[in-house]
Specification:
The protein has two domains: 376 residues, Rossmann fold; 99 residues, no CATH class. It has a seven-stranded parallel beta sheet with strand order 2-3-1-4-5-8-9, sandwiched between helices. It is an alpha/beta fold. The radius of gyration is 24 Å and the shape is globular.
Length: 536
Protein backbone atom coordinates (compact mmCIF):
# COMPACT_ATOMS: atom_id res chain seq x y z
CA UNK A 1 0.00 0.00 0.00
CA UNK A 2 1.18 3.53 -0.62
CA UNK A 3 3.24 4.59 2.36
CA UNK A 4 1.59 7.89 3.20
CA UNK A 5 -0.08 9.45 6.18
CA UNK A 6 -3.03 10.69 4.15
CA UNK A 7 -5.58 10.91 6.95
CA UNK A 8 -5.34 13.45 9.73
CA UNK A 9 -6.64 12.12 13.03
CA UNK A 10 -7.86 14.73 15.46
CA UNK A 11 -7.93 13.73 19.12
CA UNK A 12 -11.42 13.23 20.47
CA UNK A 13 -12.05 15.00 23.75
CA UNK A 14 -15.04 15.48 26.01
CA UNK A 15 -15.82 18.65 24.07
CA UNK A 16 -17.07 16.46 21.27
CA UNK A 17 -18.48 13.38 22.94
CA UNK A 18 -20.85 14.37 25.65
CA UNK A 19 21.34 17.29 21.78
CA UNK A 20 24.43 15.33 21.91
CA UNK A 21 27.87 14.53 20.37
CA UNK A 22 29.86 15.57 17.31
CA UNK A 23 28.84 14.25 13.93
CA UNK A 24 32.05 12.83 12.53
CA UNK A 25 30.86 13.58 8.99
CA UNK A 26 33.13 14.83 6.25
CA UNK A 27 31.20 18.09 6.17
CA UNK A 28 31.66 19.20 9.75
CA UNK A 29 34.81 20.37 11.47
CA UNK A 30 35.17 20.31 15.27
CA UNK A 31 34.12 23.95 15.27
CA UNK A 32 30.93 23.02 13.42
CA UNK A 33 29.36 20.67 15.94
CA UNK A 34 25.67 20.09 15.23
CA UNK A 35 24.84 20.21 18.89
CA UNK A 36 26.46 23.61 19.33
CA UNK A 37 23.70 24.99 17.12
CA UNK A 38 20.58 26.24 18.95
CA UNK A 39 17.52 24.08 18.38
CA UNK A 40 14.77 25.43 16.16
CA UNK A 41 12.09 26.41 18.66
CA UNK A 42 9.87 28.64 16.54
CA UNK A 43 7.40 27.32 13.99
CA UNK A 44 8.62 27.03 10.41
CA UNK A 45 7.85 29.98 8.17
CA UNK A 46 5.69 29.35 5.10
CA UNK A 47 8.80 29.43 2.93
CA UNK A 48 10.57 26.93 5.20
CA UNK A 49 7.54 24.64 5.21
CA UNK A 50 7.66 24.41 1.42
CA UNK A 51 11.39 23.67 1.31
CA UNK A 52 12.51 22.33 4.67
CA UNK A 53 13.80 19.05 3.27
CA UNK A 54 16.35 21.02 1.21
CA UNK A 55 17.67 23.15 4.08
CA UNK A 56 20.84 22.74 6.11
CA UNK A 57 20.95 21.67 9.75
CA UNK A 58 23.88 23.91 10.69
CA UNK A 59 22.72 27.01 8.84
CA UNK A 60 18.95 26.73 9.28
CA UNK A 61 18.71 24.51 12.41
CA UNK A 62 16.29 22.36 10.38
CA UNK A 63 17.25 18.72 9.61
CA UNK A 64 17.06 18.93 5.83
CA UNK A 65 19.43 17.28 3.33
CA UNK A 66 21.52 20.41 2.52
CA UNK A 67 20.26 20.27 -1.07
CA UNK A 68 20.27 24.03 -1.60
CA UNK A 69 23.80 24.22 -0.20
CA UNK A 70 24.91 21.46 -2.58
CA UNK A 71 23.61 23.42 -5.56
CA UNK A 72 25.13 26.69 -4.37
CA UNK A 73 28.58 25.38 -3.50
CA UNK A 74 29.17 22.18 -5.50
CA UNK A 75 26.87 21.79 -8.51
CA UNK A 76 26.68 25.48 -9.44
CA UNK A 77 26.62 25.56 -13.25
CA UNK A 78 28.03 22.10 -13.85
CA UNK A 79 26.35 20.02 -16.52
CA UNK A 80 25.70 16.45 -15.52
CA UNK A 81 24.43 13.37 -17.27
CA UNK A 82 20.66 12.91 -17.72
CA UNK A 83 19.41 10.21 -15.34
CA UNK A 84 16.23 8.15 -15.74
CA UNK A 85 14.40 7.61 -12.44
CA UNK A 86 11.52 5.15 -12.52
CA UNK A 87 8.69 5.90 -10.10
CA UNK A 88 6.67 2.76 -9.34
CA UNK A 89 3.56 4.22 -7.80
CA UNK A 90 0.04 5.37 -8.61
CA UNK A 91 -0.46 7.33 -11.82
CA UNK A 92 1.58 10.48 -12.43
CA UNK A 93 0.21 13.69 -13.94
CA UNK A 94 2.85 13.86 -16.68
CA UNK A 95 1.30 17.12 -17.95
CA UNK A 96 1.81 18.96 -14.65
CA UNK A 97 3.38 22.39 -15.14
CA UNK A 98 6.26 21.55 -12.79
CA UNK A 99 6.93 18.05 -14.18
CA UNK A 100 6.13 18.04 -17.90
CA UNK A 101 9.65 18.96 -18.99
CA UNK A 102 11.16 16.16 -16.90
CA UNK A 103 9.14 13.15 -18.09
CA UNK A 104 10.85 10.20 -19.77
CA UNK A 105 9.84 9.49 -23.36
CA UNK A 106 10.49 6.17 -25.06
CA UNK A 107 11.97 7.41 -28.32
CA UNK A 108 11.86 3.94 -29.88
CA UNK A 109 8.07 3.77 -29.61
CA UNK A 110 5.74 5.63 -31.98
CA UNK A 111 2.75 7.00 -30.04
CA UNK A 112 -0.76 5.84 -30.79
CA UNK A 113 -0.06 3.38 -33.61
CA UNK A 114 -1.09 0.31 -31.60
CA UNK A 115 2.22 -1.42 -32.33
CA UNK A 116 5.12 -2.57 -30.21
CA UNK A 117 7.71 -0.62 -32.18
CA UNK A 118 10.64 -1.33 -29.86
CA UNK A 119 9.73 -5.01 -29.39
CA UNK A 120 9.83 -4.84 -25.60
CA UNK A 121 6.41 -6.48 -25.29
CA UNK A 122 4.56 -3.29 -24.32
CA UNK A 123 2.47 -1.49 -26.93
CA UNK A 124 2.60 2.32 -26.96
CA UNK A 125 4.61 2.60 -23.75
CA UNK A 126 5.55 6.19 -24.46
CA UNK A 127 6.16 7.44 -20.92
CA UNK A 128 6.14 4.17 -18.99
CA UNK A 129 3.52 1.51 -18.33
CA UNK A 130 0.26 1.05 -16.44
CA UNK A 131 -0.03 -2.43 -14.94
CA UNK A 132 -3.29 -1.57 -13.16
CA UNK A 133 -5.40 -0.88 -16.24
CA UNK A 134 -8.46 1.12 -15.15
CA UNK A 135 -8.28 -0.12 -11.56
CA UNK A 136 -7.77 2.17 -8.60
CA UNK A 137 -9.26 0.76 -5.36
CA UNK A 138 -7.94 -2.56 -4.08
CA UNK A 139 -8.11 -4.84 -1.05
CA UNK A 140 -5.31 -5.12 1.46
CA UNK A 141 -3.21 -8.26 1.05
CA UNK A 142 -4.50 -9.88 4.23
CA UNK A 143 -8.06 -9.25 3.04
CA UNK A 144 -7.20 -11.10 -0.18
CA UNK A 145 -5.72 -13.98 1.82
CA UNK A 146 -8.95 -14.35 3.81
CA UNK A 147 -11.11 -13.93 0.71
CA UNK A 148 -9.30 -16.85 -0.91
CA UNK A 149 -10.70 -19.15 1.80
CA UNK A 150 -7.44 -21.13 1.85
CA UNK A 151 -7.13 -21.96 5.54
CA UNK A 152 -3.99 -23.99 4.78
CA UNK A 153 -2.16 -20.83 3.84
CA UNK A 154 0.56 -20.39 6.49
CA UNK A 155 -0.31 -16.68 6.66
CA UNK A 156 -4.06 -17.26 7.11
CA UNK A 157 -4.14 -17.11 10.92
CA UNK A 158 -1.98 -13.97 11.08
CA UNK A 159 -4.08 -12.42 8.29
CA UNK A 160 -7.26 -13.11 10.28
CA UNK A 161 -5.77 -11.48 13.37
CA UNK A 162 -4.67 -8.40 11.42
CA UNK A 163 -8.02 -8.17 9.64
CA UNK A 164 -10.06 -8.40 12.84
CA UNK A 165 -7.91 -5.78 14.55
CA UNK A 166 -8.00 -3.40 11.57
CA UNK A 167 -11.70 -3.85 10.84
CA UNK A 168 -12.55 -3.10 14.47
CA UNK A 169 -10.29 -0.03 14.50
CA UNK A 170 -11.71 1.50 11.33
CA UNK A 171 -15.31 0.70 12.19
CA UNK A 172 -14.91 2.43 15.54
CA UNK A 173 -13.11 5.31 13.88
CA UNK A 174 -15.96 5.72 11.42
CA UNK A 175 -18.47 6.04 14.27
CA UNK A 176 -16.16 8.47 16.03
CA UNK A 177 -15.66 10.65 12.96
CA UNK A 178 -19.38 10.68 12.16
CA UNK A 179 -20.05 12.01 15.66
CA UNK A 180 -17.29 14.61 15.39
CA UNK A 181 -18.43 15.67 11.92
CA UNK A 182 -21.99 16.22 13.08
CA UNK A 183 -20.92 18.25 16.11
CA UNK A 184 -18.48 20.41 14.12
CA UNK A 185 -21.13 20.96 11.45
CA UNK A 186 -23.69 21.93 14.11
CA UNK A 187 -21.17 24.25 15.81
CA UNK A 188 -20.40 25.95 12.51
CA UNK A 189 -24.11 26.45 11.81
CA UNK A 190 -24.65 27.88 15.33
CA UNK A 191 -21.74 30.30 14.98
CA UNK A 192 -22.80 31.32 11.48
CA UNK A 193 -26.28 32.12 12.80
CA UNK A 194 -24.82 34.04 15.77
CA UNK A 195 -22.56 36.23 13.63
CA UNK A 196 -24.89 36.45 10.66
CA UNK A 197 -22.07 35.37 8.38
CA UNK A 198 -20.07 32.22 7.58
CA UNK A 199 -16.63 33.84 7.42
CA UNK A 200 -16.37 34.73 11.10
CA UNK A 201 -12.83 35.01 12.48
CA UNK A 202 -10.98 33.29 15.31
CA UNK A 203 -10.82 36.63 17.13
CA UNK A 204 -14.59 37.01 16.88
CA UNK A 205 -15.11 33.51 18.27
CA UNK A 206 -12.73 34.23 21.17
CA UNK A 207 -14.77 37.35 21.99
CA UNK A 208 -18.06 35.50 22.47
CA UNK A 209 -19.52 35.97 25.94
CA UNK A 210 -22.71 34.05 26.50
CA UNK A 211 -24.68 31.92 28.92
CA UNK A 212 -26.34 30.08 26.06
CA UNK A 213 -25.16 26.47 26.40
CA UNK A 214 -25.28 25.63 22.67
CA UNK A 215 -23.36 28.76 21.70
CA UNK A 216 -20.83 28.24 24.49
CA UNK A 217 -20.19 24.67 23.39
CA UNK A 218 -19.87 25.80 19.76
CA UNK A 219 -17.24 28.31 20.86
CA UNK A 220 -15.33 25.55 22.68
CA UNK A 221 -15.42 23.27 19.67
CA UNK A 222 -14.27 26.04 17.32
CA UNK A 223 -11.39 27.04 19.57
CA UNK A 224 -10.29 23.43 19.89
CA UNK A 225 -10.18 23.09 16.11
CA UNK A 226 -8.25 26.37 15.81
CA UNK A 227 -5.72 25.10 18.36
CA UNK A 228 -5.11 22.11 16.08
CA UNK A 229 -3.92 24.38 13.30
CA UNK A 230 -7.14 24.79 11.31
CA UNK A 231 -7.78 28.30 10.04
CA UNK A 232 -11.58 28.20 10.05
CA UNK A 233 -14.53 26.00 10.93
CA UNK A 234 -15.14 25.50 7.23
CA UNK A 235 -11.65 23.98 7.07
CA UNK A 236 -12.51 21.78 10.05
CA UNK A 237 -15.68 20.52 8.37
CA UNK A 238 -13.70 19.75 5.20
CA UNK A 239 -10.93 18.04 7.20
CA UNK A 240 -13.29 15.69 8.99
CA UNK A 241 -15.33 15.09 5.83
CA UNK A 242 -12.15 14.08 3.97
CA UNK A 243 -11.22 11.85 6.88
CA UNK A 244 -14.61 10.13 6.69
CA UNK A 245 -14.13 9.60 2.99
CA UNK A 246 -10.79 7.87 3.59
CA UNK A 247 -12.27 5.74 6.37
CA UNK A 248 -15.19 4.65 4.18
CA UNK A 249 -12.79 3.77 1.36
CA UNK A 250 -10.81 1.64 3.78
CA UNK A 251 -13.94 -0.22 4.91
CA UNK A 252 -15.66 -0.44 1.52
CA UNK A 253 -12.64 -1.51 -0.51
CA UNK A 254 -9.47 -2.34 1.42
CA UNK A 255 -11.23 -4.41 4.08
CA UNK A 256 -14.13 -5.67 1.97
CA UNK A 257 -13.62 -9.40 1.37
CA UNK A 258 -16.13 -9.49 -1.51
CA UNK A 259 -14.71 -6.50 -3.41
CA UNK A 260 -12.98 -7.24 -6.72
CA UNK A 261 -10.80 -4.33 -7.77
CA UNK A 262 -8.47 -5.83 -10.39
CA UNK A 263 -9.48 -4.49 -13.80
CA UNK A 264 -6.68 -5.45 -16.15
CA UNK A 265 -7.82 -8.95 -17.10
CA UNK A 266 -4.76 -10.55 -15.52
CA UNK A 267 -4.36 -13.39 -13.04
CA UNK A 268 -2.01 -12.05 -10.33
CA UNK A 269 -1.03 -15.58 -9.33
CA UNK A 270 0.10 -16.63 -12.81
CA UNK A 271 3.75 -15.75 -13.34
CA UNK A 272 3.66 -16.60 -17.03
CA UNK A 273 1.50 -13.71 -18.27
CA UNK A 274 3.40 -10.42 -18.42
CA UNK A 275 2.14 -7.99 -21.02
CA UNK A 276 -1.12 -6.74 -19.53
CA UNK A 277 -2.32 -3.21 -18.74
CA UNK A 278 -1.83 -0.23 -21.04
CA UNK A 279 0.32 2.80 -21.77
CA UNK A 280 -1.83 5.34 -19.91
CA UNK A 281 0.33 6.26 -16.92
CA UNK A 282 -1.83 9.16 -15.70
CA UNK A 283 -4.16 9.06 -12.67
CA UNK A 284 -7.65 7.70 -13.34
CA UNK A 285 -9.21 10.00 -10.70
CA UNK A 286 -8.03 13.32 -9.25
CA UNK A 287 -7.72 11.80 -5.76
CA UNK A 288 -4.96 9.59 -7.18
CA UNK A 289 -2.26 12.07 -6.24
CA UNK A 290 0.40 9.97 -4.54
CA UNK A 291 2.57 9.25 -7.58
CA UNK A 292 2.52 12.87 -8.72
CA UNK A 293 3.59 14.02 -5.25
CA UNK A 294 6.46 11.51 -5.18
CA UNK A 295 7.59 12.48 -8.68
CA UNK A 296 7.68 16.15 -7.71
CA UNK A 297 9.94 15.49 -4.72
CA UNK A 298 12.47 13.98 -7.11
CA UNK A 299 12.05 16.07 -10.22
CA UNK A 300 9.87 19.18 -9.95
CA UNK A 301 11.68 21.76 -12.06
CA UNK A 302 13.98 23.82 -9.88
CA UNK A 303 13.72 27.59 -9.53
CA UNK A 304 11.15 28.09 -12.30
CA UNK A 305 8.92 30.27 -10.15
CA UNK A 306 6.34 27.53 -9.78
CA UNK A 307 5.27 25.48 -6.78
CA UNK A 308 8.02 23.17 -5.62
CA UNK A 309 11.67 22.33 -6.24
CA UNK A 310 12.74 18.75 -6.87
CA UNK A 311 15.98 17.40 -5.39
CA UNK A 312 17.47 16.47 -8.78
CA UNK A 313 17.92 18.87 -11.68
CA UNK A 314 18.92 16.48 -14.44
CA UNK A 315 16.37 13.68 -14.45
CA UNK A 316 13.62 12.10 -16.50
CA UNK A 317 10.76 10.43 -14.63
CA UNK A 318 9.61 7.07 -15.99
CA UNK A 319 6.06 6.56 -14.75
CA UNK A 320 5.08 3.00 -13.86
CA UNK A 321 1.54 2.72 -12.51
CA UNK A 322 1.44 -0.37 -10.28
CA UNK A 323 0.28 0.84 -6.85
CA UNK A 324 -3.48 1.15 -6.25
CA UNK A 325 -5.42 2.64 -3.36
CA UNK A 326 -4.95 -0.53 -1.35
CA UNK A 327 -2.20 -3.15 -1.45
CA UNK A 328 -0.19 -3.63 -4.62
CA UNK A 329 0.09 -7.08 -6.19
CA UNK A 330 3.51 -8.71 -5.98
CA UNK A 331 3.37 -9.65 -9.64
CA UNK A 332 2.77 -6.05 -10.73
CA UNK A 333 5.66 -4.81 -8.60
CA UNK A 334 8.07 -7.50 -9.84
CA UNK A 335 7.24 -6.75 -13.47
CA UNK A 336 7.39 -3.01 -12.85
CA UNK A 337 10.94 -3.32 -11.48
CA UNK A 338 12.00 -5.39 -14.47
CA UNK A 339 10.32 -2.96 -16.89
CA UNK A 340 12.22 -0.06 -15.31
CA UNK A 341 15.55 -1.87 -15.50
CA UNK A 342 15.06 -3.11 -19.07
CA UNK A 343 14.04 0.33 -20.34
CA UNK A 344 16.96 2.33 -19.05
CA UNK A 345 16.21 3.45 -15.49
CA UNK A 346 19.29 3.70 -13.29
CA UNK A 347 17.28 4.49 -10.14
CA UNK A 348 13.90 3.12 -9.04
CA UNK A 349 11.75 4.66 -6.32
CA UNK A 350 9.25 2.44 -4.51
CA UNK A 351 7.05 4.38 -2.09
CA UNK A 352 4.80 1.48 -1.17
CA UNK A 353 4.82 -1.51 1.13
CA UNK A 354 2.76 -4.08 3.01
CA UNK A 355 3.07 -6.66 5.78
CA UNK A 356 1.98 -9.70 3.74
CA UNK A 357 3.56 -10.77 0.46
CA UNK A 358 2.44 -14.15 -0.96
CA UNK A 359 4.84 -13.92 -3.90
CA UNK A 360 7.66 -12.09 -2.18
CA UNK A 361 10.16 -14.29 -4.04
CA UNK A 362 9.03 -12.78 -7.37
CA UNK A 363 9.71 -9.28 -6.08
CA UNK A 364 12.96 -10.25 -4.39
CA UNK A 365 14.19 -11.81 -7.62
CA UNK A 366 13.36 -8.56 -9.42
CA UNK A 367 15.29 -6.54 -6.80
CA UNK A 368 18.28 -8.86 -7.29
CA UNK A 369 17.90 -8.39 -11.07
CA UNK A 370 18.05 -4.61 -10.60
CA UNK A 371 21.23 -4.99 -8.56
CA UNK A 372 22.79 -7.18 -11.25
CA UNK A 373 21.99 -4.51 -13.83
CA UNK A 374 23.54 -1.69 -11.74
CA UNK A 375 20.26 -0.04 -10.70
CA UNK A 376 19.62 1.62 -7.32
CA UNK A 377 16.29 0.67 -5.71
CA UNK A 378 15.05 3.09 -3.02
CA UNK A 379 12.19 1.83 -0.86
CA UNK A 380 10.04 3.51 1.81
CA UNK A 381 10.27 1.85 5.23
CA UNK A 382 6.54 2.12 6.01
CA UNK A 383 4.30 4.11 8.33
CA UNK A 384 3.27 1.72 11.08
CA UNK A 385 5.63 2.96 13.84
CA UNK A 386 7.08 -0.57 13.88
CA UNK A 387 10.48 -2.20 14.09
CA UNK A 388 10.78 -3.91 10.70
CA UNK A 389 13.59 -6.09 12.06
CA UNK A 390 10.85 -7.83 14.07
CA UNK A 391 7.68 -7.29 12.03
CA UNK A 392 7.92 -7.80 8.26
CA UNK A 393 7.48 -5.07 5.69
CA UNK A 394 7.63 -5.93 1.99
CA UNK A 395 9.34 -5.71 -0.41
CA UNK A 396 12.62 -6.44 1.30
CA UNK A 397 16.05 -7.44 0.07
CA UNK A 398 16.93 -10.31 2.36
CA UNK A 399 16.13 -13.92 3.14
CA UNK A 400 16.52 -14.70 6.84
CA UNK A 401 18.75 -11.65 7.19
CA UNK A 402 21.00 -12.47 4.22
CA UNK A 403 20.86 -9.63 1.68
CA UNK A 404 20.42 -10.46 -1.99
CA UNK A 405 21.10 -6.91 -3.21
CA UNK A 406 23.79 -4.33 -2.49
CA UNK A 407 21.84 -1.54 -4.22
CA UNK A 408 18.60 -1.56 -2.18
CA UNK A 409 18.14 1.38 0.22
CA UNK A 410 15.31 1.40 2.77
CA UNK A 411 14.41 4.85 4.08
CA UNK A 412 12.70 6.07 7.26
CA UNK A 413 11.15 9.52 7.71
CA UNK A 414 12.36 12.58 9.63
CA UNK A 415 10.17 15.34 11.03
CA UNK A 416 11.18 18.99 10.50
CA UNK A 417 12.56 19.46 14.02
CA UNK A 418 16.01 18.53 15.28
CA UNK A 419 16.24 17.01 18.75
CA UNK A 420 14.34 14.21 20.48
CA UNK A 421 11.42 14.68 18.03
CA UNK A 422 13.65 14.16 14.99
CA UNK A 423 11.91 10.99 13.85
CA UNK A 424 8.44 11.23 12.36
CA UNK A 425 6.24 9.37 14.84
CA UNK A 426 4.66 7.21 12.14
CA UNK A 427 7.94 5.99 10.64
CA UNK A 428 9.04 2.38 10.77
CA UNK A 429 12.62 1.77 11.89
CA UNK A 430 15.13 -1.05 12.31
CA UNK A 431 18.83 -1.32 13.06
CA UNK A 432 19.24 -4.16 10.55
CA UNK A 433 16.69 -3.28 7.87
CA UNK A 434 16.34 0.52 7.68
CA UNK A 435 19.43 2.06 6.10
CA UNK A 436 18.94 5.81 6.54
CA UNK A 437 16.41 8.46 7.47
CA UNK A 438 15.49 11.49 5.35
CA UNK A 439 12.89 14.29 5.43
CA UNK A 440 9.41 12.76 5.21
CA UNK A 441 7.08 14.69 7.50
CA UNK A 442 5.05 17.54 5.98
CA UNK A 443 6.64 17.61 2.51
CA UNK A 444 5.36 20.08 -0.08
CA UNK A 445 5.18 18.85 -3.67
CA UNK A 446 3.16 18.51 -6.85
CA UNK A 447 -0.33 16.97 -7.10
CA UNK A 448 -2.52 16.54 -10.21
CA UNK A 449 -3.96 19.38 -12.30
CA UNK A 450 -1.13 21.87 -11.68
CA UNK A 451 -1.74 21.94 -7.95
CA UNK A 452 0.51 21.48 -4.91
CA UNK A 453 -0.02 19.96 -1.49
CA UNK A 454 1.74 18.89 1.70
CA UNK A 455 1.85 15.19 2.51
CA UNK A 456 3.77 13.15 5.04
CA UNK A 457 5.08 9.59 5.08
CA UNK A 458 8.11 7.48 4.40
CA UNK A 459 6.68 7.72 0.87
CA UNK A 460 8.01 11.28 0.89
CA UNK A 461 11.38 10.35 2.42
CA UNK A 462 12.28 7.71 -0.18
CA UNK A 463 12.05 10.00 -3.24
CA UNK A 464 14.22 12.57 -1.47
CA UNK A 465 16.91 9.89 -1.27
CA UNK A 466 16.21 8.81 -4.86
CA UNK A 467 16.83 12.43 -5.83
CA UNK A 468 20.19 12.44 -4.03
CA UNK A 469 21.08 9.17 -5.79
CA UNK A 470 20.19 10.85 -9.09
CA UNK A 471 22.50 13.78 -8.30
CA UNK A 472 25.37 11.38 -7.59
CA UNK A 473 24.79 9.37 -10.77
CA UNK A 474 24.38 12.54 -12.82
CA UNK A 475 27.60 14.28 -11.74
CA UNK A 476 29.71 11.20 -10.99
CA UNK A 477 28.46 8.65 -13.55
CA UNK A 478 31.48 6.37 -13.14
CA UNK A 479 30.20 5.21 -9.75
CA UNK A 480 28.30 1.94 -9.61
CA UNK A 481 24.87 1.57 -8.01
CA UNK A 482 26.49 -0.20 -5.05
CA UNK A 483 28.92 2.70 -4.64
CA UNK A 484 26.02 5.18 -4.77
CA UNK A 485 24.34 3.32 -1.92
CA UNK A 486 27.58 3.30 0.06
CA UNK A 487 28.05 7.05 -0.48
CA UNK A 488 24.50 7.83 0.69
CA UNK A 489 24.89 5.71 3.83
CA UNK A 490 28.42 6.80 4.75
CA UNK A 491 28.19 10.51 3.96
CA UNK A 492 25.19 11.44 6.06
CA UNK A 493 25.22 13.42 9.27
CA UNK A 494 25.85 11.09 12.20
CA UNK A 495 23.26 11.64 14.92
CA UNK A 496 24.37 11.02 18.50
CA UNK A 497 21.23 12.27 20.21
CA UNK A 498 18.45 10.16 21.71
CA UNK A 499 15.13 10.21 19.88
CA UNK A 500 11.52 9.27 20.49
CA UNK A 501 10.92 6.03 18.58
CA UNK A 502 7.65 5.12 16.87
CA UNK A 503 5.91 8.14 18.34
CA UNK A 504 6.06 6.53 21.80
CA UNK A 505 7.43 9.02 24.34
CA UNK A 506 8.16 6.11 26.68
CA UNK A 507 10.55 4.67 24.08
CA UNK A 508 13.56 6.97 23.82
CA UNK A 509 16.72 5.47 22.31
CA UNK A 510 20.01 6.59 20.81
CA UNK A 511 19.40 7.28 17.12
CA UNK A 512 22.10 4.77 16.22
CA UNK A 513 19.98 1.98 17.73
CA UNK A 514 17.20 2.26 15.17
CA UNK A 515 18.93 2.65 11.78
CA UNK A 516 21.80 0.81 10.14
CA UNK A 517 23.93 3.81 9.13
CA UNK A 518 23.30 5.86 12.25
CA UNK A 519 22.97 8.88 9.93
CA UNK A 520 20.53 11.19 8.19
CA UNK A 521 20.96 11.73 4.46
CA UNK A 522 22.93 14.79 3.36
CA UNK A 523 23.24 15.72 -0.32
CA UNK A 524 26.16 18.12 0.21
CA UNK A 525 28.25 15.51 1.98
CA UNK A 526 27.23 12.85 -0.54
CA UNK A 527 28.55 14.85 -3.49
CA UNK A 528 31.84 15.53 -1.71
CA UNK A 529 32.29 11.84 -0.94
CA UNK A 530 31.20 10.84 -4.45
CA UNK A 531 33.79 13.18 -5.93
CA UNK A 532 36.56 11.65 -3.82
CA UNK A 533 35.44 8.12 -4.68
CA UNK A 534 35.17 8.88 -8.40
CA UNK A 535 38.66 10.42 -8.47
CA UNK A 536 40.38 7.45 -6.85
Amino acid sequence: MRNIRNLTFIAVTSVFLTGCGSTGSILLTPEENIDAVPLKVSDLTEKEKENWGHLDLLKDTIPGMSVDKAYAEIIKNKKGKKIIVAVIDSGIDIDHEDLNDNIWTNKDEKPGNGKDDDNNGYIDDIHGWNFLGDGYHEQLEYTRILASGDTNNPDYKRAQEEYDKSNKLWSERKTQYEQIYQQIKNADETLTKHFGKSDYTQKEVAGIKTEDQALSQSKQIAQYMFSNGLESMADAVTEIKDGLKSINERLNYSLNKTFEGRKNGDDPNNANSKFYGNGNVKPVVKDESHGTHVAGIIAAERNNGKGANGVANNVEIMSIRAVPNGDEYDKDVALAIRYAVDNGASIINGSFGKSFSPHSDWVRDAIAYAAEKDVVFVHAAGNDSKNVDVEPNFPDDNIDGKEISDTYIRVGALAPKYGSSLLAGFSNYGKANVDVFAPGGQIYSTVPENEYDTKGGTSMAAPGVAGVAALIRSYYPSLTAAQVKRVIMDSGLEIKTKVVVGGNTDDVQPYANIVKSGKIVNAYNALIMASKMANK
